[in-house]
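tool=predict chain=A
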Amino acid sequence: MEVGLRAWLGRTVSLQARMLRRTDARRARRERAVAAETSAVTELLERQDEVETALATLPETLREAVVLRDLHDLEYREMAHVLGASENACRIRVFLAPLAPAPPEVPIRP
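tool=predict ok
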């Protein structure tokens, strides 16, 4: 083989190897990002189940207040209009919601 051809071939192989390493690195980064995103989505779904369960345990008056305030982002004035209660009553309901006792757990019969 000629010296010029050997140098060209060596350089081409080197560049191809470098390109493959970069491609592999990019692929690994994308896979890690997808795994992290999947984990985040799973965590959000679990949290959503927890929130729905917690809301279901609240008395209706407190549940309505929490949903209007935290999920619909209503101001207390707007909540009072929707619920037919005073602004202060709405504030108290939102404040009391996290303090509401959880209902007793019913044992499951075998």
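Residues 3-57 form the longest helix (55 residues). The mean pLDDT is 86.
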